Structure formats: C-alpha cells, structure tokens
Amino acid sequence: MEHITVKAGQSLLDIAVEHCGSMEALVSLAVANGIGVADELAAGQELAPVEVADRRNAELFANMRQKPATALTVEDIGEAEEAYGALEGIFDYTYDETYN
Prior knowledge:
Radius of gyration: 16 Å
Number of strands: 2
Structural class: mainly alpha
Largest sheet: 2 strands, antiparallel
Order of helices and strands: EHHEHHH
Shape: globular
Number of helices: 5
Helix content: 40-55%
C-alpha cells in the first residue's frame, strides 16, 4: 500500500473515512502512525495506511473530485474569504431568497 498524503484542512477522521471507508479506522490510523486521534495534521504530511474497513465507501471517495477536510482553521477561512469574498452560511441568504 502507498502512503497517504494529507490534504490541507484534513483531520485524521477525514483520512479514515476517505481512505478506509469508515470512521472505525481512526484509532488504527493513529496507532499505525504514532499520533493522537485529535492531533493536527499538516498538508503534505505522509501517513502509513491501514486496512480498508469498508471498500465500497473507500472506492466512492477515491472516485470523487472533492476530499473531506473538516479541520479548517481560522487562517484557512481567512484565506478563503480573501479569495472568494465573505463566506456565507446556508441560512444567510439562500434561505431568505428561497422561502421569502
């Protein structure tokens, strides 16, 4: 198996779901890589893979163009706002425009 390269904003849980198909692989990934389940990961960091728990889910993520990245930081959000303008939540204007 190849090493897993962490993408910007990914947590270990994101990696477990994306590459192993299940959040149940979280602890196995942490142990295999000598890190804590809540440790912050760095973009480009390489992780040793573990056994795939749910091949169907892992294949689904492998075929997607977007990857889970739930560990966004305040800096990530600031950079996105600079690039795309103010980030709005779903209820900021979408709800008002749709239901008013």
